[in-house]
Specification:
- InterPro entries: Acyl_CoA_acyltransferase.
- The protein has 430 residues and is an alpha+beta fold.
- 51% of the residues lie in helices and 13% in strands.
- It is built from 14 helices and 8 strands.
- Strands 1, 2, 3, 4, 5, 6, 7 and 8 form an 8-stranded mixed sheet that branches.
- α2 packs across α3, α2 crosses α5 and α5 crosses α6.
- The structure holds coenzyme A (COA).
Length: 430
């Protein structure tokens, strides 16, 4: 067993599919001279290309460059589930004999053109067109530019690799008609069933978190329990290392799958892992908290449950909960007092407003009275003035009348008693 390639026993899935899990650190592997072959007779670079193609086809939102960078990142480990070469060959032979007489899907022609895009080439590897022509990728290719040595090297070899894949596909289609598929017509792209990338990280809080970055099962093999097997492998801590939480940026389409595996999307809890937040699109952060004892430890016959760690954690949780409760009570009590003070202040201000309003009314009344009195005064003066003018003219009139046309005594009296001006108050004078 080598440090950068760890193999586990073969696993049997539904539908008679057997695969072997391998855990690899690609970064370390490519830095090791005479690194062991991940899969017998297959170049390690081609395994990497097939893994990137599978992940990229299954997670189109991520992009081939980011997938490659993730897989190749120093601390990242990749779980690969690979089928046995003989099993796949037998599978193909059986499938072509079953399909005899029916149409075989068209095989892409060999081409010497340069790749029109990395994305298109990668999509071709896992289009699964042999069995299901309508599953081909419809993604619009993007033009990738890169200065990264490993990415350039990855792209350089990709065209050649894709041509080999096309050649194998063509040979399987042609020779499969006689049920004689040669072993060389089965390559790495046919062996790999699933892949997942993870990294063990230390948070600033001191907790260890296993971050699952990418996970994909080849579409042809969905719903056979393969994804669940990888999840169990990640939950089995002796296989991947000790951690306090398992965290993933989950594609929105796969939330149901992760919920089935006891992951939670609880925002308050997951806020704890916010420093792991990434800018993956269409994804949410979900987490799984492991039990204190893993299944594997329980299965060990000499295992005895140690309560010490559990008790320490309980004590810590209790004191933290108590702290949080005390903080909350303090905060609520002070807020209540603040509300009371504010209410009192509002009451006082309301009283002051009422007092000022009644003072204003009083002032208005006073002003009204003064204005009335002033008006009366002016009226009285005007009447006086008019009265003196009238008596002068009356004397003159009387003299005139006496000389010209004498009237009755009552008429003259009535005329002199008529008020001159009517005020609104009806007061003719004081
Ligand atoms: C999500 C994925 C890994 C599941 O792999 P799988 O091998 O099909 O999963 P399993 O066969 O172990 O399924 C286990 C259970 O989950 C359910 N399940 C599987 N995929 C699901 C999904 N996308 N949504 C909801 N439930 C799902 C299955 O029905 C099954 O339930 P059952 O036991 O009641 O029948 C696979 O669909 C995939 O590669 N998807 C594309 C990439 C992706 O979304 N990756 C995850 C985000 S990082």
């Amino acid at each position: 067993m080598d440090g950068c390639v760890v193999r586990h026993h073969s696993v049997h899935f539904m539908g008679d599919l057997t695969a072997q899990p391998i855990i690899i650190n690609f970064h370390q592997l490519f830095q090791t001279r005479d690194a062991p072959a991940i899969l017998p007779t297959i170049r390690n670079e081609d395994v990497l290309r097939a893994v990137v193609a599978l992940l990229d086809t299954s997670l189109p939102d991520v992009g081939p460059r980011d997938v490659h960078e993730t897989v190749h990142y120093p601390g990242i480990r990749t779980i690969i589930l690979s089928r046995d070469h003989a099993d796949v060959l037998e599978d193909y032979r059986g499938r072509t004999s079953r399909n005899k007489g029916t149409d075989v899907s068209p095989v892409p022609c060999k081409t010497t053109d340069r790749p029109n895009s990395t994305l298109k080439l990668l999509a071709e590897l896992y289009s699964d067109s042999e069995e299901d022509p309508e599953e081909t990728s419809e993604e619009t290719p993007e033009v990738e530019t890169s200065n990264s040595w490993s990415w350039e090297r990855f792209c350089e070899g990709l065209q050649e690799f894709v041509e080999e894949v096309r050649d194998r596909k063509e040979r399987r289609a042609v020779q499969g008609e006689d049920g004689k598929i040669p072993p060389s017509a089965v390559g790495v792209e046919s062996l790999i069933v699933a892949a997942a990338c993870y990294e063990v990280k230390l948070l600033s809080t001191g907790e260890t978190v296993l971050q699952l970055s990418l996970l994909a099962v080849r579409k042809r093999h969905w719903r056979l329990g393969i994804g669940s097997y990888i999840m169990e492998l990640l939950k089995t801590q002796p296989a991947v290392g000790q951690y306090d939480a398992l965290v993933a940026h989950v594609d929105t389409d796969a939330i149901g799958f992760f919920k089935q595996h006891e992951f939670t999307d609880n925002l308050l809890l997951n806020d704890k892992f916010k420093e792991l937040k990434d800018d993956w699109t269409n994804s949410i952060l979900m987490s799984y908290l492991p039990p204190f004892t893993t299944d594997l430890e329980m299965r060990n016959p000499v295992f005895s449950l140690s309560l010490r760690e559990l008790e320490m954690d309980m004590d810590m949780a209790r004191s933290q909960a108590l702290n949080a409760y005390q903080q909350q009570v303090m905060c609520v009590t002070r807020l209540l007092k603040e509300v009371k003070t504010l209410r009192e202040q509002i009451g006082l201000q309301r009283e002051e407003v009422d007092r000022l309003n009644s003072k204003l009314e009083l002032e208005k009344q006073k002003r009204h009275d003064v204005e009335n009195r002033f008006l009366m005064y002016r009226l009285k003066n005007a009447q006086k003035l008019l009265g003196s003018n009238d008596s002068d003219s009356d004397d003159q009139e009387q003299t005139d009348q006496e000389h010209s046309k004498p009237g009755t005594e009552e008429q003259e009296k009535a005329q002199s008693e008529e008020p001159l001006i009517q005020t609104p108050e009806g007061a003719g004078g004081c």
